[in-house]
Amino acid sequence: MNLENRVKATAKNIEGKVQEAVGNVTGDPQAQAEGKEKQIEASTIHVVENVKDEVKKNID
To answer: For residue 11, what are the CA distances in angstroms to 18, 25, 40, 43, 59?
Structure first.
């Protein structure tokens, strides 16, 4: 488990949620899309870290 990657992913998720919300308020579809993209990227990082944890657990 790489805590640093998880923290960065969580920060990116929050940033994406804020950006999406700003896009919703301002009616900016590009900001909305970029915010959603950041959230998906963060989710992917969390999944990768979970898989790494499981692999390491099975090896140990």
So the answer is: 11, 21, 13, 11, 30
pLDDT recorded at residue 2: 84
What gap in Å lies between CA 27 and CA 15, rounded to an integer? 18
pTM value surpassing 0.90: no
Contact indicator for 36, 20 with CB cutoff of 8 Å: yes
User: What are 13-16's contacts with CB under 8 Å, separation 24+?
Assistant: 13/38, 13/39, 13/42, 13/43, 16/41, 16/42
Compute the radius of gyration of the chain from its Cα atoms: 14
